[in-house]
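Chapter summary example: a protein plus iron/sulfur cluster.
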Amino acid sequence: MKITVDEDKCCGAGSCVLAAPDVFDQRDEDGVVVLLDAEPAEHLRTAVREAADVCPAAAIALSEA
Amino acid sequence: MSGPAGVLVVGASAAGLATAEALRRKGYTGDLTLLGDEPHVPYDRPPLSKQVLAGAWQPERAHLRTREVLDALDARLVLGDEAVSLDVANRTVHTAAGRALSADAVVLATGVRPRTLPGQEGLRGVHVLRSLDDALALRGDLLATRRLLVVGDGVLGAEIAATARGLGVEVVLTGPQAAPLAAQLGPLVSGLLAELHAENGVKLRLGAGVDELTAADGRVTGARLSTGEVLEADLVVVALGAVPCTGWLEDSGLVLGNGVVCDSRCRAADGVYAAGDVARWHHERFGSLLRLENRTNATEQAGAVAANILGADQPYTPIPYFWTDQFDAKLQIHGVLAPDAQVSVVEGDPAARRFVARYDRHGQPTGVLGWNMPKQARLHRQQHLAAPTTGGTA
Ligand SMILES: Cc1cc2nc3c(=O)[nH]c(=O)nc-3n(C[C@H](O)[C@H](O)[C@H](O)COP(=O)(O)OP(=O)(O)OC[C@H]3O[C@@H](n4cnc5c(N)ncnc54)[C@H](O)[C@@H]3O)c2cc1C
Ligand code: SF4
């Protein structure tokens, strides 16, 4: 699984961080998403899928590789 | 994975799409149909009053998913056809085009539609903003106008005023409150918002409601306030809140009352659920019925509905959350900000326009607001709002 984020779309909700804190964080200055791990390990993938689905700005895209 | 043989979702937008996605994510492999009355693939509404209205985004950027991602969902997408009735016993939806769609579980996700003023229909130069088509029509007219009147001092009206100002239009914002969003945010923050708008050249005519629109030759010329004052404009946007799209359910036997009334599982009847703006469900921790009109609720409630369809039997008890962007201010609101709450700044400085405020009621934190501090607001939410208190107002 490979994650990409569209910083421009991100509204800083932080829903992704609540869903998958090992993979996502937010910048201190403006709350925009920070990707901690673009290719997360197997055991994190369910949480990452949830994070992508709950992101209210559709800013997280996943590709299965 | 257990679950029904077929699920039909009515309303192909944020909550509808999220229901379908959550079902698949949780392992549902049965039939899935998404029915929507708009011709467009599912798109996001928050950018409509911001990036799309401003022209910063082409409409396609607001689409929620790419074609490939939608295809991978393996759902039947029926677009441009409107549900006109629901047979609850048979869980069958009839559509305007004559389709009869049946499923073991039906999810109602039809959202809300804008409230209008009497006489507004058929008048040229008057807009509402709910759909992509609304946004494009409003943008087209805004570019050719000099004076815009925004009727409504809530979040949508304030956002439209800010975006239109950014396009160089003269903007007057009118509404009955003392400041924009006063009822939601309380005097401190709404006062700061009023300042922000005024600084950026929005004329605020607050403290009086609009009685009626004025018109000449079928075209709007402005609005008359309850004080008798007339505000003149070339273009008017009415942003007076919204009503749930439940007209098509009137003969269904479901309980309707400011939305589809549901139990704590978001269930309106056996095998019938509601999610998103249209759903009014029993929030167990607040101990009352609640209907939320915000973007994160659409997805979170959809997730709860999907889980319950698959047998989870869990109450839906979210911490409400919404955000709004106006000029350079990005506000994040977690929890419930009772208007009579005690407000204290817990981080940053309002004078610097970067702060987090905590809202306490009866000595208990009920909400957190961030002004240009999204991450910090989220951290305060995690610290203070982990367990919403029972019996709080909402
Ligand atoms: C301009 C604008 C800006 C916003 N900004 C923010 C923001 O900044 N932050 C935030 O948190 N929230 C914001 N919101 C609110 C957020 O967009 C909504 O809460 C969210 O879209 C709700 O999703 P929903 O799927 O429940 O309803 P909707 O998005 O309204 O979708 C319902 C869908 O069902 C369709 N439908 C209705 N009746 C029928 C029928 N009979 N048959 C078939 N289909 C039907 C509708 O046409 C629509 O496509 C904004 C909303 C708007 C309009
Ligand atoms: S959930 Fe989406 S919008 Fe919110 S911080 Fe994460 S990427 Fe940004």
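Key point: Residues 21 and 38 of chain A are 13 Å apart (CA to CA).
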